[in-house]
Design goal:
The structure is a homodimer of 178-residue chains.
Chain A: E1 4-5, H1 12-15, E2 21-27, E3 30-36, E4 39-43, E5 48-52, H2 58-66, E6 68-73, H3 79-87, H4 95-99, E7 103-104, E8 113-114, E9 119-127, H5 131-134, E10 136-146, E11 156-160, E12 163-172
Antiparallel strand pairs in A: 1-10, 2-3, 2-6, 4-5, 5-10, 6-9, 7-8, 9-10, 11-12
Chain lengths: 178, 178
Amino acid sequence: MAKKSFPLSKVYGLLEPGPVVMVTTARKGQPNIMTMSWYTMMEFEPPLVGCVISNRNYSFDTLKATRECVINIPTVELAKQVVSVGNSHGPKLDKFAASGLTPATATYVKAPLIAECYVNLECRLADTRLVNKYCFFVLEVLAAWIDPAVKDPRTMHHRGNGVFMLAGEIIKLPSKMK
Amino acid sequence: MAKKSFPLSKVYGLLEPGPVVMVTTARKGQPNIMTMSWYTMMEFEPPLVGCVISNRNYSFDTLKATRECVINIPTVELAKQVVSVGNSHGPKLDKFAASGLTPATATYVKAPLIAECYVNLECRLADTRLVNKYCFFVLEVLAAWIDPAVKDPRTMHHRGNGVFMLAGEIIKLPSKMK
């Protein structure tokens, strides 16, 4: 899967619909993956993304220490892997091996991209003011990569307790909203 | 449409999938409505929602001054009204009259509910630390109302520039995630 660079000015359109994402981090050569649905765009360009990563997650400490991560967007073809990642915890587990996902080298960060995800966003930690109180991190997207072959991504949207809504019909409305 | 009280502990499942919402505020008896896609859950219970409301929006000043609002979730049946609200601006415009939406009285806040939306979340401003830098407000949901007749809400998910993804198929996976 050859990915192409994607304009930072258009990243908001990938995250605004609210798909489940997988966040990758790495520390001392040990990669980790977690699933995440609690995030929002905060600025168009450079793209800022705010996200909640629980301090019960191993990724919390790694993100605080390394100040970088990758946001990867899966489609429903990866449902089994998303569930595998969401159900497993712990610093000793190799989640790439356990889930069958493939790490790929990023350009700006040490955290790996997930090769199978159709979008990868390399991120640097930009603001930690709400980390202590809400576990809320503000990330800046440094680079975005997309699989140009995926024209109609069937993203997964978490409704809680294992129920997911899949991306459905696309409509175009006379909206002036960016 | 008779709405029922909805448990606060389950509110996250309504917002996590990422639907476009309409935020209502009111100041000195003058209601306002804006569309919003830049928000995230921040805590399960009491439910906290973080959201970006641009300081170019009239709602920004009203929310800062009154410290309360309502988050209303529309379905695709309200697409025309969502676009109408998103395309119009200004403190002098009565957006309820212009869009044909119906205000209803809330229980805990002075901002009106939008009667036609299948979910209404009455909110109080909980944290303003990131307002100056990012226009990011943390809201606490005080009460949630749902139309029990809507079993399969076809929510709208903004992809930018008038393109919306509609909620599609629902699947259940063996996920242990809350």
